[in-house]
Design brief:
CATH architecture of the largest domain in chain B: 3-Layer(aba) Sandwich
Strand order of the largest sheet of chain C: 1-2
Largest sheet of chain C: 2 strands, antiparallel
Structural class of chain C: mainly alpha
Chains: A mainly alpha, B alpha/beta, C mainly alpha
Largest interface: A-B, 52 and 51 residues
CATH superfamily of the largest domain in chain B: Response regulator
Number of strands of chain C: 2
Strand content of chain B: 15-25%
Radius of gyration of chain B: 22 Å
Number of strands of chain B: 15
Strand content of chain C: under 5%
CATH topology of the largest domain in chain B: Rossmann fold
Helix content of chain C: over 70%
Number of helices of chain C: 11
Largest sheet of chain B: 7 strands, mixed
Helix content of chain B: 40-55%
Number of domains of chain C: 1
Number of helices of chain B: 12
Number of domains of chain B: 2
Oligomer: heterotrimer
CATH topology of chain C: ABC transporter involved in vitamin B12 uptake, BtuC
Shape of chain C: globular
Strand order of the largest sheet of chain B: 7-6-8-9-10-14-15
CATH class of chain C: Mainly Alpha
Order of helices and strands of chain B: HEHEHEHEEHEHEHEHEHEHHHEEEEE
Radius of gyration of chain C: 19 Å
Structural class of chain B: alpha/beta
Chain lengths: ~280, ~375, ~290
């Protein structure tokens, strides 16, 4: 029981990071490298926190719905022009969006700028997080094998060919972009109501990079791959913390080094992510 | 989640759970106490975490040698993020079962992690949290020995005005960091309260190294004094660049300037800069001298962060003493409430009724490459 | 006004030098090298070590540090990019593996040097102030602008006039065609990385001199600005990166002067946005940035 308590937060973060990795996967599965989700997460987090702090009676479900809705709404006018860009350009444009959202919150006095909002009541429980995660997994899982799912795969393989075949590529890409934004927004609100506070420093470039890395390391070949990646990369630093202490290393740079090294190894030798390990075992 | 991946996650967690306790890990020394310290050893606040670690280790050693309670301090990295801060706190509280926690380094991390300690009724002593609200407000188990800017700046500015007689100011502050933003909020209020006209305000972000544009703009409006809320690294660059751009007027800094690193990096440009600080580096009191010696022995430059960390350990030792030598969580909590006029490197230290720090701040000015007290 | 213009040119020259390396690798390999800022940082530390510990004069330390950066670039290419070359999603995996290498470099720097900011010892560069019109500039600032411009000019000459330059341009156009034409593509790519990282390293040393600030996270502040520069200039275009570097420096400075510094970084990203939406190929770029 004590062990569970000691790692309760870790389990919660695995769930939240799983949601965030899935939000990146939403666009990756149709071949779009969008790095906007830290921005959407911030919008969802602040929305949820502000509602909770100013409108006490609103039930948590409604708060979460609002935190999914606002990013989704913003994703539409953002996505339409931006999704026309290819590859790295889309990535850079979305990085720019994320930074602008962060800077907005740093400069907004109403939310105390860099100090952020504190003393947010803890309305998130473990089951809330995993319920949301299950929901997201269900949505994304249902896509596979469906007509929309095949369309997304076609777009990922060759967008021009898909368009010539009559697939509305813009609508599909935009839908996934909006879905990703909604999932990220919910994750943000869940995290805000778990950690008692929100501040712009938590939603910078580093955050979205973490999400991307978790999705890719887990593997985007399967819809649950990103969750595996999130679990692995969230738990890994803690395992390394213990290992490092046992080996006599002082905490600090060693862990950072191993994070980078392990990421390198996975990307070089396991290109389809950890999911490919499972696949291999199943096929054998 | 498919059964295979679920299996994997479960296996991972079981793996952590089944690890044996390695030799020499968390267990309270006999007659002593197990303390957890959550410090930012990597990430944005790594500079402060490193200083704090030195201060804590020095203090624990000095106290043990001086016949005080044996404090075993477990130092963990909170990565300057709230997620790791929370994880570290939970480990301290539930796995290592510490009697008290020092830190975390950043106020942002504190507002996320301290509530956990409050819920579990584990005393926390903040050693660098300077946000005005949202720290000790969390609950009665949260204490801090770091003066907020609100306790330092008004006095410092008043004294500076007595010496320099300024009527208008140009302000530059870091708006993306809690230390400097909190400092700025207080500076703005103090300037207004004291009737000083702010002619222009400029901001910068912590990773910035180039301040020419902002300084040129500030110098352009010809204020009587330039007021800066920045941490040591940025402060050194700001002051050098200001002098380079031709600003020869007075510069007034906040807590962040109070570090030998500031003088070292700014060189000659630091001359004349006035600083309101919570740690009087020049104090001749024996408590401070012992601290300075201990840091010198370890080859570490003493600064405000290490001074406050060192003091933190001393306060915990005192709390244990006041509790009759008992080292449990409740005892330390009660003992903290009894700490009064303790001799520390920060001066005579007590807690306010709201568990914030209380000791005399000071005003210093750089003269001949060293900080001097302004009388 | 004149002072602000000078400020803009000064910071712009460093942005430009940094971005030129960034855009070179993108032009050749179609990959964003996120470890560029780590090389920038390590070169600065290398120069610091050479000056402070080995007591070399600056004019000897800087070329050595730049050479070190170039070698790091070759290592980077061999370790993190070459194994990925055949893959379909190479730009995403290249991005991630360069990110991983950047993290590893930063961890090494953190372990060796600690998180503190260091500076060059006083007197590394003569401290002299020069007045130009109503503005004041340090001799150091003027030298940095000059060195940046010279290095960028040399790069342009190399690409336009030398055999290696032609080969680089050929590989950038089409690696397959270049190979058919007898170009040793592997060696050319390694050379491109060497050049790119050397320039990034030079930018790092100049930055460290300019702002007297060397720390393991010093690359972070330039990294995202660098992105804005290469987009504005046009991905793969060297002259574009140069012009855009100076332009961004000036835009930033005048934003501060006119609107206040809180908007400064937001303006860089707004510029990035507007360019991507209105004219994705930037000022001088040729890469097709849209789908159809």
């Amino acid at each position: 029981m004590d062990l569970f308590l000691a790692y309760q937060s870790l389990i919660a973060f695995v769930g939240i990071n799983g949601l965030l990795a899935l939000s990146v996967y939403a666009t990756l599965c149709c071949g779009q490298l969008s790095l906007a989700n830290a921005g959407f997460m911030a919008i969802g987090a602040y929305t949820g926190a502000l509602i909770t702090q100013h409108a006490r009676g609103v039930p948590f479900v409604a708060v979460l719905a609002a935190s999914a809705l606002l990013p989704a709404i913003i994703a539409v006018p953002l996505g339409l022009p931006v999704l026309r860009l290819r590859g790295v350009f889309l990535a850079i444009a979305t990085i720019g969006f994320g930074e602008m959202v962060r800077l907005f919150f740093v400069n907004w006095d109403y939310t105390n700028g860099a100090l952020g909002l504190v003393a947010i009541p803890q309305r998130t429980h473990l089951w809330t997080i995993f319920l949301a995660l299950a929901g997201a997994l269900y949505l994304l899982g249902r896509l596979r094998g469906s007509r929309a799912g095949y369309a997304l795969e076609a777009i990922r393989e060759d967008e021009t060919a898909a368009r010539t075949m009559g697939i509305d590529t813009t609508a599909h890409k935009l839908a996934m972009f909006v879905l990703g934004a909604a999932i990220a927004g919910v994750a943000g609100a869940l995290e805000a109501h778990l950690t008692f506070m929100v501040a712009p420093s938590g939603y910078g470039f580093g955050r979205v990079v973490d999400m991307l890395v978790q999705a890719v390391v887990g593997g985007t070949a399967a819809f649950f791959g990103p969750v595996i990646g999130a679990a692995f990369l969230t738990v890994l630093p803690e395992v390394l913390r213990e290992a490092g202490a046992r080996l006599g290393f002082a905490p600090g740079p060693f862990r950072l080094f191993l994070n980078g090294a392990i990421l390198l190894v996975v990307i070089l030798f396991l290109p389809n992510g950890l999911v490919s390990l499972l696949r291999r075992r199943r096929a054998a | 989640m498919s059964s295979a991946s679920r299996r994997m996650v479960v296996l991972l967690l079981l793996g952590i759970a089944c690890k044996e306790k390695p030799a020499g890990e968390a267990s309270a020394p006999s007659g002593g106490a197990l303390i957890g310290a959550a410090l930012s050893l990597t990430g944005a606040a790594a500079v402060y975490g490193a200083q704090q670690r030195a201060g804590i280790q020095a203090a624990a050693e000095e106290i043990a040698q001086g016949g005080g309670p044996k404090l075993q301090v477990l130092i963990e990295d909170d990565g300057s993020t709230k997620e790791q801060g929370i994880t570290v706190f939970q480990k301290f509280i539930n796995r290592d079962k510490v009697s008290a926690i020092l830190g975390p380094t950043l106020s942002n991390t504190a507002s996320a992690a301290d509530p956990l300690a409050q819920q579990a009724q584990v005393p926390v002593l903040g050693i660098s949290n300077t946000a005005a609200t949202g720290i000790t407000d969390i609950g009665n188990y949260i204490w801090r020995d770091s003066l907020t800017e609100a306790q330092v700046i008004p006095g410092a500015f008043k004294k500076a005005r007595e010496k320099l007689g300024f009527k208008s100011a140009g302000v530059l502050y870091g708006n993306d960091d809690v230390f400097t933003k909190a400092g700025y909020d207080v500076m703005r209020k103090t300037l207004a309260d004291q009737g000083i006209k702010v002619l222009d305000t400029q901001t910068f972000a912590k990773p910035d190294r180039d301040f020419h544009a902002q300084l040129t703009a500030l110098i352009g409006v010809k204020p009587d004094v330039v007021v800066v809320s920045a941490l040591a690294d940025n402060a050194a660059a700001i002051v050098s660049q200001a002098r380079q751009l031709g600003w020869s007027g007075p510069i007034l800094g906040g807590n962040g300037f109070n570090s030998p690193a500031f003088i070292k990096n700014a060189g000659a440009a630091a001359e004349g800069v006035m600083v309101g600080t919570s740690w009087n580096s020049l104090s001749q009191e024996p408590a401070n001298q012992k601290f300075l010696e201990a840091m010198k022995k370890r080859g570490v430059n003493p600064d405000q962060f290490s001074a406050q960390a060192f003091t933190g350990v001393q306060i915990l030792a005192e709390a244990i003493k006041r509790a009759g030598g008992k080292t449990g969580r409740e005892e330390i909590e009660k003992g903290l409430g009894l700490v009064k006029d303790l001799d520390t490197p920060l001066g005579k230290f007590s807690f306010t009724p709201s568990r914030d720090a209380q000791h005399d701040p000071s005003v210093q000015q750089v003269k001949d490459g060293k900080f001097q007290i302004v009388q | 006004m004149g002072q602000q213009a000078l400020n803009g040119v000064f910071v712009g020259s460093i942005y430009a030098l940094f971005a030129v390396g960034y855009t070179l690798v993108f032009g050749v390999l179609d990959i964003l090298n996120l470890a560029h800022q780590a090389v920038f940082m390590l070169a600065a530390f290398a120069a610091l070590l050479l000056v402070a510990d080995a007591h070399l004069p600056l004019w000897a330390a800087m070329p050595l540090a730049v050479l070190f950066a170039g070698l790091l670039g070759i290592l980077l290419e061999r370790l993190a990019f070459r194994p990925l070359r055949g893959r379909a999603d190479s730009n995403i995996s290249g991005l991630i593996s360069s990110l991983a290498m950047g993290t590893v470099f930063e961890a090494i720097a953190l372990q060796i040097f600690g998180p503190d900011t260091s500076r060059f010892p006083h007197g590394t560069f003569p401290d002299r102030l020069i007045r130009i019109g109503g503005a004041s500039a340090s001799l150091l600032q003027l030298c940095i602008i000059a060195i940046s411009v010279v290095l960028m000019a040399l790069l342009t000459l190399l690409l336009a006039r030398t055999r290696l330059g032609r080969q680089i341009r050929a590989v950038a156009e089409s690696p397959r065609a270049a190979r058919i034409l007898g170009v040793n593509v592997d060696r050319v790519i390694a050379a491109a990385f060497f050049i790119s990282s050397s320039l990034g390293g030079a930018a790092g040393v100049l930055f460290a001199l300019a702002f007297n600030s060397i720390s393991p996270d010093v690359g972070r502040s330039v990294e995202l600005k660098g992105l804005a520069v290469i987009i504005l200039g046009g991905m793969g275009s060297i002259p574009g990166a140069v012009i855009a570097g100076f332009a961004l420096g000036l835009i930033e400075v005048f934003t501060v002067a006119g609107f206040g510094s809180s908007y400064r970084d937001a303006v860089s990203f707004a510029v990035l946005f507007v360019v991507l939406l209105a004219r994705p190929r930037g000022l001088l770029g040729q890469a097709a940035a849209r789908e159809a």
